[in-house]
Amino acid sequence: MFITFEGIEGAGKSLQIARTEEYLKKKGIPCLTTREPGGTEFGLALRPILLGTDGCRREPICELLLYLADRYQHLKEVIEPALKRNIVVLSDRYQDATRAYQGAARGIAESTVEKLTRLIGITEPDRTLLLDLAPEEGLPRARQRNEACPVAGAEGRFEAEDLSFHKRVREAYLKLAARFPERIHVVAASGTPDEIFSRIAPLIDTWTSAIR
Ligand code: TYD
What we know:
This protein is of the alpha/beta class. It has 9 helices and 5 strands.
């Protein structure tokens, strides 16, 4: 089973993924947490280029191709081999992030994103948890984290975008949830980490009930 976590900046994905991994391990279900961009050595080399704040100019399509390159390597090197070994894969972002950020927010036509993705054989995850939060709440959190952590601060390309950009990202994610209702489950990401995880755990239980 391949589960992805999506949401705007500061929605708390990293924390909830860590909680999910711990929860699955306690149940004796083998799992692996990974992320995009940067789930492979190649991806890690791309990450500062993709997320750096003082990098050189790039066209939206150029950015899209780099995210797809990162994803293709990630899929072949990490995700598919783990799934073959019946390991549950939890990924912090995947293809829906490209649809929301490069497609809706940067303005690349949906048909371009879909055609390129299909051309190289990027597959859909089995399930997606969309941690939904208003950017007015998430963005200050993400910016605060960046100020506190030099590494995150150096990766602030998207946090530096204005509120309207992040509103487009959130709307795009919600539209995707309506387009893929079987796969994408929206979880309200307001409240304490415990409250948020109490919304996630029953979904994880249902999805993994056949495993073991
Ligand atoms: P992430 O490491 O999840 O950072 P955060 O914890 O702040 O959400 O994601 C890094 C950034 O990468 C995020 O701002 C969105 C961007 N991104 C895209 O624009 N397209 C993509 O396809 C992916 C995977 C990420």
